Amino acid sequence: DSSAMLSSAVKCALKLFNSRALPTYEGSFYAQDVHKDSEILRDADGTPTCISPDEKSVFFLTGVCQGQDRLWQLHLSRMASSGRLCQIAGEKAIAIDLFMRQINLRKLAEGDWKAICEAALAGDPEACKVKSMVTFYAKGVNWAVNNAKQLPVEFHLTGQRPFQLWTEVDSLSVLRLHAFAMGFGYQHSLVRQALHDVLGDDIAKEWTMMSDKEQEDIPDTVPPNDSQISELLSKADVKTAMGPEDRERDQGSNVFCISGKMSASSMPILASDPHLSVRIPSFWYPINMHCTESKIGFSSAGACVVGMPGIFIGHNTFCSWGVTLGYQDMEDVYIEKVKKLPNGEYEYLSGGKWLPVKKRTATIKIKGKPSQTRTFLETHHGPIVSYPSIDSFQRYKAHASEIIAKASEEMEGKEEDVKIMLSLAATTLRPQSRGPFGIYRVLRARSFKEFDVAIGEISRTAGLNFGYADIDGHIGYVLAGEVPIRKCPRGKELYPLKGWSGEDEYIGFLPHANLPKSLDPSKGYVISANHKIVNYNDYKHYLGTCWKVGWRAASIEKEILEAVKEKKTLDSDDCLKIQLSNLSIPAIKFCAVIEKFLPDEKSIPETFSEEERKLITFGIEHLKGFNGRLDLESTQATLYGFAHGYLVKTLTEGGMRKALENKEVSSKASKIKLNSEALEGILIGEPIDVAKAFKIIMEFEGHLHLNVLRMFNRDNSYWIQQSGGPVNALSKALLRAVKTYNSLPQKEWGDVHAAALEHKLTAALKQPPGTAFDHPKVRLAGDMNTPNQNKNKGLTELEHNGSSVSMRFIADMSDLRNKCRFITPVGVCAIVGSPFYTNRVQRWGNGIVPRMIWHQDDARKVSKFQMKFDLTGPPNGFSLSFLGAVAVAGLASVYALRRRR
């Protein structure tokens, strides 16, 4: 049809225009200050191997590779982290830019760089090396730009020319952005407060509970009474770290390690598969790095984050490591009482005293519009984030104002002079990040102790779980992310805290030495899947209660133990099968609920018509015997997905309908626009407003399936009662599910759950998903609760939402040269038209994880391209002239197609 022809024409035009932007991977090149024996080899997949006798040259080569392949991604990341997206997208990005200017990551990055430079100037040898790492990476990026024939088409479409040279602060601000995105805690406290105050505690808590007392079958990441825990506790300052204990102790990515006792090679195997939004370009950049200097050299391989050198998931010659999000509670929202003084300054109440508010102004440049100058405020807790431009924050702030108004006796000064604002306290916003030091140290770690020290550097401003294995036969686990020690009772941080009283202040941070870690646990394996890290009966420090339900961890443990029982020992193929497991434990439990309340047709309420009863009966029968595996060919998986989604809709619709009959509840709900649809969005983890551009986690969706099961285990669930009881609610849900299921032309889970790997500019060009910059849809198995995680778009929108396995990495420590495996979803090069643009998609989608070719001798054997750097000749390559001639006709054709569209 005409639409398909237009989309095809657009893609052809993009490729034609980009043909001059494709990087040159072959030849001899000149680069100042780079060792003459430096080279970049690329294999048939496009993966670069950077080799040099000189350490700083290796980091330079890393910058060259990323500058060649990911220049638009680099630029977009620095613009986002600096609050400058309006310069690309215009006024529609103003809310995002305001938010980023409020939290001021760019300023924090400038402070990080200043601290590194000052330490280097003072003679700190490690600071000198870290400074060199960041500087030479930036030089490498800029070398790639200056030796390119043409900027990629994205720069031309958005008017982002000329390219501003990459700086060290750019790298550190991007690192700050990723750390903030992975931080966790502040959004759920705002939403929880609103839900509880509008609906009441008893009604709201059925959706917001997190205690996992029902889950004794879920493994802790660090098992009770582990020897390492006991050793750490003997050294820890338990009293200051615990905080008050008024509250009863409550209990997205995978990494697991098995010990040599369980492996066929008699050495540990580590498997890591981080779950992130899968799009074009990929979050990860595959690379191999070799510094061949005999005394201080290193070799490391895996994936780095675009914008920084170093390996975030991978291995060196001594150990391997994988990463998941820690989910410890590292963020809080404080409700601040602020008043404006006659001179234009501000004060806020803290511990009975009025203190000056830090005030700064910033000018935001807006494409096609006049610039805007805004004022930003900050208390000692953190930046004020409640501004009128951010609608959703305002909704929850307005409700908080009502709550605080009730406490007027605590006010000092006239109430009308005081405004309620929200400030954000976050570990990730602490000054002077040591993250770059950790990145540098991990490359050279030679033992668990050295690895832990390296992760300790990251711990100041990032919250992550690290799995570990080494060539000496050890496996381990380390948590990074220093958790705030709060004055308030445990659990109070689940709601916004009082900023004015002094009773909810931080009294410090739990140091890295006291965070959980484990070395060679007696059970012989380590599992981390964003679930509870420790049992508070054994570990006395408080990390929060917000981790995800451990369904994936339990599935991984089940698969490990069953494989060991069957085969005695496991190899990398077995570990890959575990990574690819589509076993959903909540699916099995949900079908058991249906079996209990709707065992057959006779149990269906008579209020349903004969035709409706037939449809419900089909649902009952089709789900009987479902093994809980959401495989590509499964039609039971499809019906289960619809049945669970429609059950949640049935419960929220019935419960909210009844709640809104109360005038007081209705009045409160209208102020924050809370209805059944809004509640559904909260339950599937939609972040608050502009935060969805950055925050990749929200707490409620991680507990949705558990809380639904809890309701059916209670005799008096409000939500079930308002839906006509358990039998009626399940019957309604099955009826709606079967009707939708029957309407599908293809009913297999892989067809329903397919994903298009999208590039943001495809939508900007008004092209359909899967065209232009995108890759066509790929069939995917699993869901959010399976080890092979691929999340649904919505409750009953079962297509894939973009969150998926963003990389698979497996390392058998018996032979790192030949027994490491690695895959990312798309390609290395993000320039449309490159042979390495989406060349990995089908293998990734089919669960194929090839051998990682990283050793420099092997890289030479399979090399298809070689860039050699020579100091003796003049500068080679093409200098990029931003004012020179470009392929105007190609670009004009793209714009012409847009106008015709």
Automatic annotation (TrEMBL):
| One GO MF term attached to the UniProt entry | hydrolase activity, acting on carbon-nitrogen (but not peptide) bonds, in linear amides
**Biological process GO annotation list?**
antibiotic biosynthetic process
> Where do transmembrane segments lie in this chain?
877-897
Source organism, top-level taxon? Eukaryota
Q: Which InterPro entries does the UniProt entry name for this protein?
A: Ntn_hydrolases_N, Pen/GL7ACA/AHL_acylase, Penicillin_amidase_A-knob, Penicillin_amidase_dom1, Penicillin_amidase_N_B-knob, S45
One matching Pfam family: Penicil_amidase
**Gene3D superfamilies found in the cross-reference section:** 1.10.1400.10, 2.30.120.10, Glutamine Phosphoribosylpyrophosphate, subunit 1, domain 1 (3.60.20.10), Penicillin Amidohydrolase, domain 1 (1.10.439.10)
Q: Does the keyword Transmembrane helix apply?
A: yes
Give the keywords, sorted: Hydrolase, Membrane, Transmembrane, Transmembrane helix, Zymogen
**Family per record:** Belongs to the peptidase S45 family.
Query: Cross-referenced PANTHER family, in alphabetical order?
Result: ACYL-HOMOSERINE LACTONE ACYLASE QUIP, PEPTIDASE S45 PENICILLIN AMIDASE
Name this polypeptide is given: Penicillin acylase family protein
